[in-house]
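Example record for the data management plan.
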Amino acid sequence: MKTKEEIEVLIVKEFTDSISNNEVSELKTWREFDVLNEKEYQAWKSTWEKSQKVSAFGQEDAACAWLNCRQRMNFSEVKRNFSFGFVRKIAAVLLPLVVLGSLYMAYQTVPGFGKLQAFSPATKNDSILLKDNTQVFLAKGSTLVYSKNVDSNVRHVKLQGQGFFKVAHDESKPFLISIGDAQVEVIGTQFNLLENQVSHEVELYVTQGKVKLSSGSESAYVSKGEMAIVVDSRISKRPNDNLNYISWKTGNLSFEASDFNSTIKTVTNHFASIKTVEVEGDEPKNKITSRFVNPSLDEVLNELAIHFNKKMTFDNGKLLISD
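Corresponding structural encoding:
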């Protein structure tokens, strides 16, 4: 019968798929020799599988992770003590995998590190021309994550915030945009797309061509002159009646008999500095008709406060509306 140290090595090898056929037989013999051996083996195996193998240890030191796993397991019925040497063997096998896995994940997902790049205008609206000749205008404070190359069969980007897209036509490579809990797919068209930073609703306004909008199990085609909104993975569309859908780009705001909620939503879409909104007291029932040309947030809030007879205070990203 093999020694305790040798058995520990075999267990490590089996967990990491590096065990030979002969070693499988040797480990099987040890497991069948004593019921306590089998209980120990199954306890470690169960913990390993529940931890999703390597991915569960990518965020902490491998040796410590295995010690934590051991503490979570009930060994009251199994009168055996695993040596720290066993933990060190696990760590020795896992650490190279963790490092390689972390580097691979960073290459795949971290903009600027590997295959992805991020464009994020911080102080003013700006535009970028992607390698496929798609032009994207971004509202300040928004972020576009895109691939550095165009070799794949799909052009895929991720948008946080708001942008206007002029997608270069290429039937062989669909253009996909991930935003919030929705995805947009096009061949070549123009549209404005945003995720409201307060309500997290996704809004799509098509100015040319046709766009496929998907969320969860739902999907809809949105054509020129139409708009669509995604709320809790439900899609609704209608003719575009929003006068301000590209106000962030033009700089102008227009309200025609606009109610309180619609007005505040438009303002939060226009000014990226507003992160949260809190309304105290009753909702105003009157409506506003007004126009602003390149206004500051203070200018808009001052006039809205007068129209709706409310106090509007903006501080550190939060808009407080009170009586």
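Summary line stored alongside the record: The chain has three domains: 4-109, 117-239, 247-322.
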